[in-house]
TrEMBL record:
Keywords: Membrane, Transmembrane, Transmembrane helix. Gene3D superfamilies: MFS general substrate transporter like domains. Residues 21-438 form the Major facilitator superfamily (MFS) profile domain. The chain crosses the membrane at residues 20-39, 59-81, 88-109, 115-136, 148-171, 177-197, 256-277, 289-313, 325-342, 348-371, 383-404, 416-433. The lineage of its organism: Bacteria, Bacillati, Actinomycetota, Actinomycetes, Propionibacteriales. It is found in: Cell membrane. It comes from the Bacteria. GO terms for molecular function: carboxylic acid transmembrane transporter activity. Pfam families: MFS_1 (PF07690). This is MFS transporter.
Length: 449
């Protein structure tokens, strides 16, 4: 039986995702996941840091600044990739959030610290939609959800690493050491990105850079479908780039407007719960009577659950469609957070926290794929950037929301319910998303090529 393929906008058949694309996307997102999720591991240390004397509301606000930066980074990612390409957008994003993490480690005031956290978010926000667009372009259709999940498992792995390191580092060295570790991408990942990551064939084709397309094809073993290419690769006439206004007309056109708005709402609710839970879970567990080490271990389990659960759910999304799987993940988060409010035995708590990880970080990974496969190739990066940008408003609200709830003296059970409710609404929003035409992204991509 012939292996299913995906045709990019440049007419390149992808039978197997290039290892460099998948491996480097995973590595970059692992380090980004560490940078973003580790904030929750240092919140108890920040609250006890006498030199700054932070209140829960202030700690929540500092957590929200990174997510606000991600909002702006995601909104600008489409324009940036149009200008410099997906490869250089990834390189720039990794550089920005790595340097900013190092600066957080030496910040001398809450104001400096908050500004550097904002810059961390700028870099991280530009990375995620770019990675999704690149992976979807370089994946066979039957592997898109799974490949995206494998790459975005890095976010959960990074969070799990943050939890493990925090157990050893935070009690002994405080929060600054955790931020210093965030400089690792400059040493580990950046040189590999510069050496091995290919540029988007769609981007190269739109600019008539045919020689570079040949290099990508040769290096990564891709195949050319001459019949689907509007003009041969050796043509002197370069393909006309798709205007950004055309992309926006597609995203907000009659056929996709409702889908676009519901994706925005669903992403908003998901990121509210995700960033709220990651920022405040250790502090909530300390308040519930667990020691700091045990509380940090729950964050580790939250992210391991996200990784394992999402890898298990993604093949189902490829087979059954994204909608039922994303809705089920949202529902799992709502149910698990509600049951945590009942303070079950410790063994059950670990299980429920793992399920909550699938329903928070895991849900966002699945939504990213859902969005990426619902739009034409030429509009995909822009659609992802706008969806994540709008959704980041929920991420901005999540940590501040948790800080406000903690400051009001609401019982721990009430705070869990306060995060379960938006997860339930997220399930309903996803179920309302209209069904997409089969193979829409591939077919329309060919029409735009």
């Amino acid at each position: 039986m012939q292996t299913p393929t995906t045709t990019t906008g440049a007419g390149i058949h992808v039978r197997r995702t290039p290892r460099a694309v998948l491996a480097l996307s995973f590595a970059a997102l692992t380090l980004e996941g560490y940078d973003l999720i580790m904030y929750g591991t240092v919140v108890p240390s920040l609250l006890s840091y006498r030199a700054w004397d932070l209140t829960p509301e202030q700690a929540g606000f500092l957590g929200s600044l990174a997510v606000f930066g991600m909002l702006l980074g995601a909104l600008g990612s489409g324009a940036l990739t149009d200008r410099i390409g997906r490869r250089w957008t990834m390189v720039l994003s990794v550089t920005v959030f790595s340097v900013a993490m190092g600066l957080c480690a030496v910040a001398t005031s809450p104001g400096q610290f908050g500004f550097f956290r904002f810059v961390v978010g700028l870099g991280a926000g530009g990375l995620m939609p770019t990675v999704v667009a690149l992976i979807v372009e370089y994946s066979p259709m039957h592997r898109r959800s799974l490949n995206t999940a494998i790459a975005f498992a890095g976010v959960g792995i990074g969070g799990a690493v943050a939890g493990l390191l925090a157990i050893a580092i935070v009690p002994a060295y405080g929060f600054r050491a955790m931020f210093a570790v965030g400089l690792a991408p400059l040493i580990i990942v950046l040189p590999l990105l510069l050496r091995f990551l290919p540029e988007s064939v769609e981007y190269l084709r739109a600019r008539g850079r045919e020689e570079e397309i040949r290099e990508v094809i040769e290096r990564h073993g891709l195949e050319i479908d001459h019949e689907s290419v509007h003009g041969p690769l050796d043509s002197d006439v370069a393909e006309v780039p798709i205007a950004r206004g055309t992309q926006l007309r597609t995203i907000f056109g009659r056929d996709l407007l409702v889908t676009t708005l519901l994706f925005w709402v669903g992403t908003f609710l998901c990121l509210l719960v995700l960033f709220g839970a990651n920022a405040w879970l250790p502090a909530l567990m300390v308040k519930a009577g667990y020691g700091l080490g045990s509380a940090l271990s729950f964050l580790l389990v939250l992210n391991l659950g996200a990784v394992l659960g999402t890898l298990a759910a993604s093949p189902l999304a490829d087979r059954l469609g994204s909608k039922p799987i994303v809705a089920a993940a949202f529902l799992g988060a709502a149910v698990s957070l509600s049951l945590l409010a009942l303070r079950p035995p410790t063994a059950v708590v670990y299980l429920l926290v793992a399920i909550a990880g699938v329903g928070t970080t895991g849900t966002q990974i699945l939504i990213n794929t859902y969005v990426g496969t619902s739009y034409p190739t030429a509009s995909r990066a822009t659609a992802l950037g706008l969806s994540l940008g709008a959704g980041r408003l929920g991420g901005v609200l999540g940590p501040s929301y948790g800080g406000y709830l903690l400051a009001t003296g609401l019982p721990v059970s009430g705070q869990f319910y306060a995060y379960a409710i938006p997860a339930l609404f997220g399930c309903l929003v996803v179920l309302a998303i209209p069904g997409a035409k089969r193979n829409q992204s591939t077919t329309e991509a060919g029409n735009h090529a």
